[in-house]
Amino acid sequence: MQFPLSMSDISLWIAVTAIILLITSELISSYSESFGSFAIEKQRLRLVALLLGMAFMVTVLLRVVAPT
Amino acid sequence: MITKNSKEKTPRRRRRRVNSKSTNIKHLIEILQRVQRENELLKQELLKSRQIPSGKIGFAFLIVGALSLVGSITASSSTLAFIGLGLSFWGALFLFTRPIKFVRGSLLDWTAVSSYTTIDRMLEDLNYKGKGVYVPPYPKDVYLPDYLKGLKEMIVFISATGTAEMPTIEEMARKEFLVKNPKGICISPPGYGLMSLFEKEMRTDFSHINLESLYDILPKIADLGLAGEVEAETENDFIHITIVDSIYKDLYSRERALKSIHLIGCPLVSAVACAIAKTTGKNVIIVKDKISPDLKKIEVWYQTIEG
Hints:
The complex is a heterodimer of chains A (about 70) and B (about 300). Chain A is mainly α and about 70 residues long. Chain A contains two helices and two strands, in the order H-E-E-H. The radius of gyration of chain A is 15 Å and the shape is elongated. Chain B has two domains: about 45 residues; about 200 residues, no CATH class. Chain B is flat and about 90 Å long. The chains are: A mainly alpha (about 70), B alpha+beta (about 300). Chains A and B meet through helix 1, strand 2 and helix 2 of A and helix 2 and helix 3 of B.
């Protein structure tokens, strides 16, 4: 019983998700907080996008410092 | 002869009374039906606002994601792991980015109507015809003796005759509703709370900035979702504000025919008047307002006057 994803898999997943969120937060920055009947907290979305971007950078640094 | 006439008149009077009663009842039924329709519309609005599904979707994603992560470990499947990671992440994101409280703009507008109707009734009853004068409060850090402490609150003075004469500071400090000399009423501005919110959100005390800085700050009101666009500029001796797609635009509709809305402005217009009064330290009046037929664009001209 082992988690089936390696560090590089997780790094790639984080990178893709961070890019999607960063693009979304940039695109909706000029809109108000409600889109029809859907409401979203824009600042929190941006925060999550930036955190994921930083997480990806951390995984890259880990792979540079300790390559497997 | 007299008795014959009076006998003829009595059935006529009765018929008239019956007719007027039936028209009154018809009118009342119409009002009742209209109120019921409005009530139904409000209920639907409330239901719609309650049925925001992002919370339920978030929980569903989280549960399915967690299950598929567990499944990926037991089955050693990387595909299941990716699915689990994705679902649990998006589920958590849906819950995290959901606003704490989301209220439809139309609800705000409906809650404000009763205050304006009350002011309308008061002005009509007292037969007051003056414009609303926004009187700036004294800054919080300024020391005032106890009997003048009431001056730290912002008020709108509506005079009986429309003269430029203002009550003395002692009278205003007494926090009276009816002012005797000159005749008028003192009420709290409907937008004072909003102005305090602007100050809090923008981390600015409007009494410590100048008018130019206020012009730069006012367009940011749109970021709070209260209007689509806000523009401020100086036009001759007036301060001209253009508000596009205001959340309170329906208060200006002809069906409602509110009079006080043109005297003291809607909460947003009133908040801007409060901000101008606080920034300049001068009394402010709403000289004129112009509303586009589709209510999308509200233009207001303010003027500062020496107190």
